[in-house]
Task: inverse folding
């Protein structure tokens, strides 16, 4: 979160950041007004306490001197001060609660390098990789959702039967491919110096608030018990929407040393979000689903190193796509697409050639975001109380946090199925993944199962 002092001293900077984001649901004037009243009450309270302390000392002197009338007057004034002070403290506490709630709803201030724009279509492309040596593709690339069902490695219907829309089964080589991709990513990031974690999957409301998921994105989260529109407290649990939440919060209210930094953690988790199924054609297939796997990269660094670390983080995440030989690009998010907690974000987008989307490359297909690498600066650290000491004898300061997906499934699965498919309907396993699939070179499919399979290709 932004500090109240920052908002107080730089209200125009905050307003400009909100305008760049296209955010109109934050009232900076209300924050300033609440803060001003709170400070006035705190100052008035200090004055009253000082006066009361003086009177308390004076009462003893007056009684000792035998001036009972003056002592009684002083006692009456002390009682008046006590009542007035209690009223002021009560109002100050109300304002403090209100101010904290208002500040929690303020997004981070974008860096100066963030370009203007309304949505992902206005993001700036920074690099494009892999289009110089495209593999030979079928004349008509079959979309992953059709190909997956033809190969019997994706089962949407039974996913709906078990869990509802937005869930699916991976079967046979589909499941093997998913596990292979996860292990492949973990090994790459271990090479890059990441310490591996396996965090808790349920996370508290306090942890969700710490990284910025609450209260902003309450509707998108999976709450454990209760309904999302009901009040929650700091101990209520939610299914992990991203490993960023537990990994960042593992150091909540902690103080690290400069010698500890940079800290680089990776964590594989399943992730749960309700946002799936809201974007037209992407309701088909596994591009937008309620449960998905992801390897997350989380960094903790000194403030002066965070921008340089962000650039390195982009390269570390993109290394997965480099080794898979999947065409991809890197973009810089515009203000309107910037995430709530981020000061600057680079998207890594893989190319899926089956669907001819308006925002695709010149050769057709479409871009699928598989990683958003973000510098949150001190925004999350302030929310969770995470500091570091530049030197052991120096005052503690807020450090900077960063994260990126390294990278997100199942969109990489989509790209593999579409980019590596062959004219005969099989899929070539990317060479880098073959050691993780026992040397298997092709996915050729499986026989269907059940009565509904009779007459649909099953040999009985």
Result:
């Amino acid at each position: 979160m932004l500090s109240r002092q920052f908002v107080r001293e730089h209200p125009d900077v905050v307003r400009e950041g909100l305008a760049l984001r296209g955010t109109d649901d934050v009232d900076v004037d209300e924050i300033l007004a609440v803060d001003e009243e709170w400070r006035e009450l705190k100052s008035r309270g200090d004055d009253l306490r000082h006066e009361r302390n003086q009177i308390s000392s004076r009462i003893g002197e007056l009684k000792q001197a035998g001036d009972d009338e003056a002592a009684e007057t002083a006692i009456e004034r002390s009682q008046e001060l006590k009542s007035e002070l209690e009223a002021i403290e009560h109002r100050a506490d109300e304002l403090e609660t209100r101010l904290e709630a208002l500040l929690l709803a303020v997004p981070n201030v974008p860096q100066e390098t963030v370009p203007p724009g309304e949505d992902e279509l206005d993001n700036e492309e920074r690099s494009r990789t892999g289009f110089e040596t495209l593999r030979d593709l079928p004349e008509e690339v079959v979309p992953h959702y059709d190909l997956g069902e033809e190969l019997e490695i994706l089962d949407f219907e039974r996913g709906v039967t078990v869990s509802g829309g937005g869930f699916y089964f991976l079967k046979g080589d589909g499941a093997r491919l998913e596990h292979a991709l996860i292990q492949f990513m973990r090994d790459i990031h271990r090479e890059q110096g990441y310490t591996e974690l396996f965090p808790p999957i349920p996370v508290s409301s306090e942890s969700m608030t710490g990284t910025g998921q609450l209260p902003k994105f309450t509707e998108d989260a999976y709450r454990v018990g209760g309904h999302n529109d009901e009040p929650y407290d700091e101990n209520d649990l939610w299914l992990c929407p991203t490993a960023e939440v537990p990994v960042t919060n593992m150091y909540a209210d902690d103080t690290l040393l400069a010698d500890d930094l940079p800290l680089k953690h990776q964590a594989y988790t399943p992730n749960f979000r309700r946002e799936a199924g809201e974007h037209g054609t992407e309701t088909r297939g596994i591009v937008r689903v309620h449960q998905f796997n992801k390897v997350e990269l989380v960094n903790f660094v000194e403030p002066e190193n965070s921008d340089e670390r962000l650039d390195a983080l982009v390269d570390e995440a993109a290394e997965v796509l480099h080794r898979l030989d999947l065409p991809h690009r890197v973009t810089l998010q515009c203000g309107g697409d910037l995430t709530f907690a981020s000061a600057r974000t680079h998207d890594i987008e893989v190319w899926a050639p089956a669907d001819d989307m308006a925002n695709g490359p010149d050769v057709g297909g479409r871009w699928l975001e598989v990683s958003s690498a973000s510098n949150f600066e001190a925004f999350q650290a302030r929310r969770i109380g995470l500091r570091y000491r530049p030197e052991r004898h120096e005052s503690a300061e807020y450090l900077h946090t960063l994260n990126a997906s390294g990278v997100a499934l199942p969109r990489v699965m989509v790209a593999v199925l579409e980019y590596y498919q062959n004219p005969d309907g099989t899929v070539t396993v990317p060479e880098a993944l073959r050691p993780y699939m026992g040397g298997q070179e092709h996915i050729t499919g499986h026989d269907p199962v059940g009565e509904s399979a009779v007459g649909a290709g099953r040999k009985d």
